[in-house]
Amino acid sequence: KQEVTQIPAALSVPEGENLVLNCSFTDSAIYNLQWFRQDPGKGLTSLLLIQSSQREQTSGRLNASLDKSSGRSTLYIAASQPGDSATYLCAVRLAGANSKLTFGKGITLSVRP
Amino acid sequence: DAGITQSPRHKVTETGTPVTLRCHQTENHRYMYWYRQDPGHGLRLIHYSYGVKDTDKGEVSDGYSVSRSKTEDFLLTLESATSSQTSVYFCAISERDSLRNEQYFGPGTRLTVT
Asked: What percent of chain A shows pLDDT beyond 90?
């Protein structure tokens, strides 16, 4: 059974800091990995999707990397801002027909002004 | 934003009553999913659909049923609600054959069973 772990559960940083959020998974036979953002009381917003054949994806100040062999992904946020405060979740999809996403529990990020 | 709506957005109901939550999409995506989100458990898949009238169970399907009679609508029914089903329910959609294959989420329904 695929397990996805995100540690720590919460993180507080000063504004302007570059930071890395970690995600680890137990089964390396993944189809892709997706990073989401969730604001309090809201739904999930897709940030980045990395296919299993890719090493990284970038969108603005966000960069996500994937190392399938070690079962790890990182989300790098450059020059953090208070507006980046949210919960960040990673989810992996196993290879195979009709496979589903397995989610980590998320990292709650607080960026202090 | 992907065209996904959920109704109702909030509901309070009593133990033992039936409840139906609706997810509606305007993207014509093939796959639709129902998740629940609880503190300490994260997001867990309840049921999903891979086409009209094609559904399958997720990891926490007990006490829930689903139906999909049209591409755009996916209904989640709690036949007899229990307090353990108090949660936030999210619908998601995905186009299986697209290169990007992302899942897009609806705004959620907060259900309280008293």
From this structure: 80
Average pLDDT, chain A: 93
> What tokens were used for B112?
């309280």
pLDDT at B97 over 70: no
Integer Cα distance of A111 and A23 in angstroms: 20
DSSP code per residue over B34-69: EEEEETTTEEEEEEEEEETTEEEE-TT-TTEEEEEE
Distance of CA A73 to CAs A29, A49, A102, B22, Å? Answer: 14, 11, 14, 34
Residue in this structure with the two tokens 């990397």, named with its chain if needed: A65
Residue B102 confidence (pLDDT): 82
> Which residues neighbour A60 within 8 Å (Cβ) at sequence distance 6 or greater?
none
Structure tokens at A79: 């020059």
Structure tokens at A32: 């892709």
Report pLDDT for A97. 64
pLDDT of residue A98: 65
Which distant-in-sequence residues (6+ apart) come within 8 Å of A13 by Cβ? A19, A80, A109, A110, A111, A112
Sign of CA dihedral B10, A104, A19, A32: negative
Residues of B in contact with A32 (CB under 8 A): 101
- Provide the shortest C-alpha distance from residue B67 to chain A (in Å): 17
Q: Which of A 60-89 lie inside 8 A of B, CB atoms?
A: 89
pLDDT value, residue A79: 97
User: Region A22-47: what's the mean pLDDT?
Assistant: 93
